[in-house]
């Protein structure tokens, strides 16, 4: 640990974790009564996936969960954030639970506890049942009710051992990319017509939190993707564009949870949210903790005349990038700025923060004995240092989570982007820890010394 920030006493208060998502690692998409999700539809759409692959076998974790637990034990992490597949538990999104699906997660929870790792499930990481999407998906309020029912089924089975839960992962990406511009499932291009999905996801979170607490949960939180928004130029039109993007990516999701309801959408010519009596009180009830996924800042400029959106997202000047290129600039101090701004904006309403995803993809070979991923180590060190700076600035951060434990199926990118601390040979399933795995293990040990 050569970075001075990584010797900060602030890091001693952190719990350390790593994360995965069910669809990205499990494989076995037709095994044991699993239903069909919107991402199954996408991977079978010709031309949708960059390398024409599917999520089978991915990392084959449905059959190799013991291998993954051993890797977690080797890291000596405090927690493992893993995804529970809605369609494994409830194949069509309604009705009784699929016993075989719940059995898998039951065994995983027991294995984690035996290894000394706290199980920290995420109930929804984008794998909406197709049957619900056909009824309107997140555009339909009833999906929130169905999600709460699903949460209850999982809580009934695992709640005697799982104390803390994440409900929904990155509702912003589901809204903006899934329903807004069509770069994630379900590949819809509704632009501002996607906005009802914001409210229905936040309502789903609140209803699921209530269901889980009724089953003994000690802590429940949502996981929001946040970005620090920067105007390209110090010009009024770029500042206005940045304010609009900040509202759509950050505030429209955080304000109802941590503030006083939705920001003023009608002032921007946008339709109001489909709010019913009691919704905002339920959504705005105190949060046990608040999950923040952070990868990069976003630089925007005013859009040209005739554009359907009032902003353009552009490369961040002078910033190095990850394997995704200009869309993913590396600016660690943006994480400090974001966290400090969240604390300033929401003040006493701001609960303890968990950094629930942070990581980077860089080009790596498909087969490897050892990956010396110094760029990833540098990225992680910079961002952990940024978390330390935020803590020193008064932000109550309790947990830091690396994305991802292992290489996985990276959505539309297929297997072309690798985020893992552990290399996966997708032809054989072989797992090989990278240099970053050893580095993270050593950092965790040093923080406890």
TrEMBL record:
<keyword id="KW-0119">Carbohydrate metabolism</keyword>
<keyword id="KW-0136">Cellulose degradation</keyword>
<dbReference type="GO" id="GO:0030245">
    <property type="term" value="P:cellulose catabolic process"/>
</dbReference>
<dbReference type="InterPro" id="IPR017853">
    <property type="entry name" value="GH"/>
</dbReference>
<dbReference type="GO" id="GO:0005829">
    <property type="term" value="C:cytosol"/>
</dbReference>
<feature type="binding site">
    <location>
        <position position="125"/>
    </location>
    <ligand>
        <name>substrate</name>
    </ligand>
</feature>
<dbReference type="GO" id="GO:0008422">
    <property type="term" value="F:beta-glucosidase activity"/>
</dbReference>
<keyword id="KW-0624">Polysaccharide degradation</keyword>
<dbReference type="InterPro" id="IPR001360">
    <property type="entry name" value="Glyco_hydro_1"/>
</dbReference>
<keyword id="KW-0326">Glycosidase</keyword>
<dbReference type="InterPro" id="IPR017736">
    <property type="entry name" value="Glyco_hydro_1_beta-glucosidase"/>
</dbReference>
<dbReference type="Pfam" id="PF00232">
    <property type="entry name" value="Glyco_hydro_1"/>
</dbReference>
<feature type="binding site">
    <location>
        <position position="403"/>
    </location>
    <ligand>
        <name>substrate</name>
    </ligand>
</feature>
<feature type="active site" description="Nucleophile">
    <location>
        <position position="357"/>
    </location>
</feature>
<feature type="active site" description="Proton donor">
    <location>
        <position position="170"/>
    </location>
</feature>
<feature type="binding site">
    <location>
        <position position="295"/>
    </location>
    <ligand>
        <name>substrate</name>
    </ligand>
</feature>
<comment type="similarity">
    <text>Belongs to the glycosyl hydrolase 1 family.</text>
</comment>
<feature type="binding site">
    <location>
        <begin position="410"/>
        <end position="411"/>
    </location>
    <ligand>
        <name>substrate</name>
    </ligand>
</feature>
<feature type="binding site">
    <location>
        <position position="24"/>
    </location>
    <ligand>
        <name>substrate</name>
    </ligand>
</feature>
<feature type="binding site">
    <location>
        <position position="169"/>
    </location>
    <ligand>
        <name>substrate</name>
    </ligand>
</feature>
<protein>
    <recommendedName>
        <fullName>Beta-glucosidase</fullName>
        <ecNumber>3.2.1.21</ecNumber>
    </recommendedName>
</protein>
<keyword id="KW-0378">Hydrolase</keyword>
